[in-house]
Amino acid sequence: MLDISxxxxxxxxxxxNTYSAIAQMKQTGEPIILTVNGKAEVVVQDAKSYQQLLEKxxxxxxxxxxxxxxxxxxxxxxxxxAEFMQExxxxxxxxx
Length: 96
Known about the structure:
- The chain is an alpha+beta fold.
- It has 2 domains: 4-45; 49-92.
- It has helices at 4-7, 11-16, 18-28, 47-74, 81-92, and strands at residues 8-10, 32-36, 39-44.
- It has a 3-stranded mixed beta sheet.
- β2 and β3 (39-44) form a beta hairpin.
């Protein structure tokens, strides 16, 4: 969880203390939000945590796709596979 007192810092401070900031990110797994003129501008994250975030997003997208497919089945937006195969064979000139 983001700790405002620890995980938000100025870009200038980050530049002065880059190695300690990297060590902090590796230890906590949390990103650091960098500010410029008092406004949040950039989020910096260690590579391992970023990879984990990407993997979580991929799983969530897969779950969302499965839910959508199940909803389409439930609402009757499907057709028999034999019908689909026949249509594709005719459309692309594939012999059975």
